[in-house]
Specification:
Elements lengths: L1 E8 L16 E2 L2 E2 H10 L6 E6 L4 H8 L9 E2 L4 H11 L5 E8 L7 H14 L1 E6 L5 E5 L2 E6 L6 E2 L3 E4 H9 L9 H7 L5 E4 L10 H14 L2 E14 L3 E4 L2 E4 L3 E2 L7 H13 L5 H4 L13 H13 L3 E10 L9 H12 L6 E6 L5 H4 L3 E12 L7
Parallel strand pairs: 1-4, 1-6, 4-5, 7-12, 17-18
Antiparallel strand pairs: 2-3, 6-11, 7-10, 7-11, 8-9, 13-16, 13-19, 14-15, 17-19
Helix pairs in contact: 3-5, 5-6, 8-10
The chain binds magnesium ion (MG).
């Protein structure tokens, strides 16, 4: 039974002054949409994750979600949320989906338990939405005037992920193209389906206003309070060649670097630093030099996998710092290109990547120009209680 999660991110509501749609704004160094997608991608009950994005956001999407494995290529959404969801559903027509969860990217705090309940409710009822009780008393207001009370026992606030049998919700969306509903439960009800409810979560907030951002920042800071520091070190010898791969950038040089892969000491040190921070082996245990598939491999594969392992555990990479040691080539002219390459591979902002260089005063093997060394530090923020053996 195939379970699909559609994550809707096609809206353009931008945070004042940034010009960037809110779902691409960072929380704890990682885009809101990346938090949302990763929650579904790592859930064992979800087989496929399909993002729906605005056509102008393709490059931003790729930048913000690099390092999240297991998500399908994004589908371009429409002018309304409802149209975007329908396009996502249509795009999944050949995937054999039985249960679909539809989630707003602007709710980054969706939990494993909430996803479990959504799948169970859709399996049992065919259509179900998460709701939470309202704690404040409710009143009707017209022209700023109180016009009467609403019994709060009869109403609930509705959230996402909403969950459905795929065929039923696709048919409901096709039958509602002249309407403009703001949630899929309303689309299902319009088609005559009975929509069950299940428990949402107060923490599953939708980020809309600047105040929401502040609350979300505080919430995620508390959630990702398990701060880990890892370090990595690597050496490769110079050999014949006319360029080296260094920190993800092709740098012309009168020699090459010798190694089983592309011998990028910078990316290797960073990969080990991240693996160290999550106490999960080292580059050699994940990518054994004895395995011919890594011969000549581009080292961004190793670094991206380390970033994926962090995301899989619900963590974020807060900062990376790299020091390259050698007499030549000069790193300064390439520094920003290296920072951008590293940031792009792991999917964090460039402002969270430092690249530095030093000579060793002509001492030792680097001083004798026999090779290059690199040392890296990774700061990783993990959720508490996420200890994996
Ligand atoms: Mg190496």
């Amino acid at each position: 039974m195939t379970h699909l999660a559609i994550v809707v991110a096609a809206g353009r509501g931008s945070r004042a002054g940034t010009g960037r749609a809110k779902q691409y704004m960072p929380l704890a160094g990682r885009a809101i949409i990346a938090h949302s997608l990763a929650s579904f991608a790592r859930h064992p009950g979800i087989d496929l994750v399909l993002p729906v994005i605005h056509p102008d956001d393709a490059a931003l999407f790729a930048e913000c979600t690099a390092g999240i494995a297991g998500i399908l290529d994004p589908v371009v959404g429409g002018a309304t949320r409802q149209e975007s969801v329908r396009r996502g559903l249509e795009a999944a027509a050949s995937l054999g989906v039985e249960i679909v969860l539809i989630h707003d990217a602007a709710r980054p705090f969706v939990t494993t338990g909430l996803i479990d309940r959504a799948i169970a409710a859709a399996t049992a009822h065919g259509a179900a939405v998460p709701v939470i009780p309202l704690v404040d008393s409710l009143v009707m207001v017209v022209d700023d005037e109180r016009r009467g009370s609403v019994d709060r026992e009869t109403v609930r606030a509705v959230q996402t992920p909403q969950a459905f049998r795929y065929d039923a919700i696709l048919a409901a969306h096709r039958a509602a193209t002249d309407e403009n509903f703001t949630d899929d439960g309303a689309v299902a009800a319009h088609a005559g389906l009975t929509v069950a409810t299940f428990s949402g979560e107060a923490g599953n907030m939708k980020i809309t206003t600047a105040e929401d951002f502040a609350r979300a920042d505080a919430a995620i800071a508390a959630q990702l309070g398990d701060i880990r520091i890892g370090n990595g070190f690597d050496v490769h010898a110079f050999g014949p060649g006319d360029h080296i791969m260094l920190a993800g950038v092709r740098v012309p040089h009168e020699q090459g670097l010798v190694g089983h892969s592309d011998a990028d000491v910078g990316l290797h040190a960073l990969t080990d630093a991240i693996l160290g921070a999550i106490a999960h082996g080292d580059i050699g245990s994940h990518f054994p030099p004895s395995d011919p598939q890594w011969k000549g491999a581009a080292s961004h594969i190793f670094l991206r996998e380390a970033a994926r392992l962090v995301a899989e555990r619900g963590g974020v990479i807060a900062h990376l710092d790299l020091t390259i040691m050698g007499e030549a080539p000069k790193v300064g002219p390439w520094r920003d290109a290296m920072r951008e390459a590293i940031a792009g591979i792991v999917g964090i902002p460039v402002s969270r990547v430092g690249v530095k260089a030093t000579t060793t005063e002509r001492l030792g093997f680097t001083g004798r120009r026999e090779g290059l060394a690199a040392q890296a530090t990774a700061t990783v923020r993990m959720p508490f209680g996420n200890d994996v053996p």
